[in-house]
Automatic annotation (TrEMBL), chains A, B, C:
Full protein name: Aspartate carbamoyltransferase
Keywords, in A-Z order: Pyrimidine biosynthesis, Transferase
Function: Catalyzes the condensation of carbamoyl phosphate and aspartate to form carbamoyl aspartate and inorganic phosphate, the committed step in the de novo pyrimidine nucleotide biosynthesis pathway.
Keyword Transferase assigned: yes
Catalytic activity field: carbamoyl phosphate + L-aspartate = N-carbamoyl-L-aspartate + phosphate + H(+)
Entry keyword Repeat: no
Positions bound to carbamoyl phosphate: R59, T60, R109, H137, Q140, L268, P269
Family in the record: Belongs to the aspartate/ornithine carbamoyltransferase superfamily. ATCase family.
One Pfam family in the UniProt entry: OTCace_N
Length: 309, 309, 309
């Protein structure tokens, strides 16, 4: 196990080496008791996390805020609707320089792919990408990996099905890449219209990652360890009809998973892609997954801010 | 005096036994110096209060935030306008499970009666009801009682007039119930259209609480100790004309209270039901009442979170 | 050097004696290491700053929040869009009394000149004016002075050009007044339509302050130490055409300042009055100026809250 975290910014999961990910997953496990308020820390007392949410994001925003505050730090920033009033015509570069003046680390969500990278090049404080359009959302990937590792105590050799919208779903692209690094096998289960992009498949092949594509979940349900479901997002569709046709086609319910040896995960929010009859079963790991966002983000914040000082 | 607070959630004043209320009022008095920054506490350091304000509420929100922060804790959440973006079609149950993952206690305001109870049934962290539609707002009732007790050093035997909108006013229903528990006498003073609901009167009778109804404040002004005024809320009226007719009819001014031996209370915000010529007199207790929200909510937060750990 | 700060409120730079300003600038220098997270303080632990932003203000709001939190304190309040829901028809006086109940100090931004003074007359906690319409914004002036003093180690005898909109620019009126107290010389550089108001000039003359007016920056560029640029705010103009004509006429770029012995300042946000080709030069002090808002506001908060207890 390495002793230090080398990254200055968290922009893309592709910037992580396998040992960087292992370090963060290990740190997260150490921080779980603090995340659950069973232990106390003020390691980041006096430190400020600047939050630039140009797009609304409740889950990611709240879990970063919680993570910072559980370590004794605090947050300043803006979110969503107030973003426009922030700028008064100001450039993204100038807004970022302002936040740099007030913060010990920055977290940014923006609709434009590349926004976080752009900012990390012009400010001296650490920058964390909390989602840049169709681009990356690396801390989501880390908490997904952490959830799997906490359940199985390993990732290598597991069989993971990624189900639903694999075309527009930012989450699954990064996760497939990362699972490949850890020698998991993957099944990509989606309607033909929403298959994993060729580019992502190409990357995986280049890295000798084993995967299989299908449009029928039943073909693979008996052999998988993890059923990772994604929301089919209405707003990604140009056409209401296309959305209606597909919606519900990949519904996960208790009947489907009953008697199987697998867990169900979901980045949330869910609409109706997982039936609530799964909620009170052992298959449900999606609420725990949401909680794991806290220790994982604590691990990131603690180490990236510590590196700066 | 009992030594512990037994409730796991604060949903309705009806869940409180008299000894629970006495415990909180006593605790609030102990915490007043911290509320005034004359003493310091970090008893809730590292603890996070999740704030789910589906309806805007500045006073309640700010006083809960202040209470949590004065005890060394911190808050995460959303309020009002951003609430819709929270859900993206997510169910109230799922949103609550998310907040549970991030928080050591939850506070919720919602337009639907029963929302807080519903949430308390599905999450493991303590839930505090900060107003559920026409339902309950128990911490308002507790701070109202505290204000009276701080003034008279007792509640038993006092004569309290509840004035204004007794039909739609959530505050007065709970307060009448609680005053009954403490053997106060009550006068319900309202226009005929806005009388206390039959159901509330029935409850009071069942508990042998003494009350009297009138539409003329002058009939009772000489015999009361507390004049509790409520805002006649325009938004509760289906009809602008009905509102205009009644508005101002129950105006409290200095002439009315001059020479009387009583205090004036109001849950705030006031519009024009109390004339500002009362503000700088000894009768005015409504601003102090607002402050008392802090020690009372500190007492709730401290004990309900302590019970969890 | 005096040892104490005498002001109870920070409403106008005109309330400051020279020694009060010197005290704050000196304190700010002591607090810089904390502002940069090189040292730690929890001097304001348990203290709450109430933030009443009736108008949106990201820069001022964030730097006050950062300042409070870097000293271990915390903040409650509202900003901009949610302001209307705060009041529900409540008077400014009542809203202020509510905030007084929750806070150890208040900061207010309001569109009406005199709003901060009005509030400071009715509440007992310290009040800080964060901009009242066309009126004052004293902490901006203090951080402007601090930026100059940090650069030149003095203010006396410097030659400062205030450039751009000198008519509507709240910032420059207060700054001119304060620079006069410190015996700086001033050049007021503006189009004829946007000259410094007669009233301000009259004040300066009365105090024997040396100043010079011109509409051509080139006349003075060789002799100045500080080039203080202000945004020409579209929203201040009754007429789009007038705005278009002037916009860009006073553009500062690298060609203009190259080889000169001066620094460029700007209260930010900038739109296009300073070309980005100045950003990576030694002339750029506007980003540092933004940072200096933190130690200066820390100095104000620390001393004004300390005075209260």
């Amino acid at each position: 196990m390495i002793k230090i975290f080398n990254l200055n910014d968290v922009i893309s999961i592709k910037d992580f080496q396998k040992k960087d990910i292992e370090f963060i997953l290990n740190e997260a496990e150490n921080l779980e008791k603090i995340a659950k308020s069973q232990e106390f820390s003020d390691e980041l007392a006096g430190k400020i996390l600047g939050m630039m949410f140009f797009e609304p994001s409740t889950r990611t925003r709240l879990s970063f805020e919680t993570s910072m505050k559980k370590l004794g730090g605090n947050c300043v920033g803006f979110a969503g609707s107030s973003a426009s009033s922030v700028s008064k015509g100001e450039s993204l570069a100038d807004t970022s320089k302002m936040f740099e003046a007030y913060s010990d680390a920055l977290i940014i969500r923006h609709s434009l792919e590349g926004a976080a990278k752009f900012i990390s090049d012009i400010v001296d404080v650490p920058v964390i990408n909390a989602g840049d359009g169709a681009g990356q959302h690396p801390t989501q990937t880390l908490l997904d990996l952490y959830t799997i590792k906490r359940q199985f105590d390993k990732i290598k050799g597991l069989n993971v099905a990624l189900v639903g919208d694999l075309k527009y779903g930012r989450t699954v692209h990064s996760l497939a890449y990362a699972l490949g690094m850890f020698d998991a096998q993957m099944n990509f289960v989606s309607p033909d219209e929403l298959k994993m992009p060729k580019e992502t498949l190409h990357d995986l092949k280049k890295n000798n990652v084993k995967f299989h594509e299908t449009n029928n979940l039943k073909n693979v349900i008996d052999e998988i360890d993890v059923l990772y479901v994604t929301r089919i997002q209405k707003e990604r569709f140009p056409d209401e009809e296309e959305y209606s046709k597909i919606k519900g086609a990949y519904l996960i319910n208790h009947d489907l998973v009953k008697g199987k040896d697998l867990i169900v995960m979901h980045p949330l929010p869910r609409v109706d892609e997982i039936s609530t009859d799964v909620d009170n079963t052992k298959y449900n790991k999606y609420f725990e997954q949401a909680f794991y966002g806290v220790p994982v983000r604590m691990a990131i914040l603690k180490n990236i801010i510590k590196n700066k000082f």
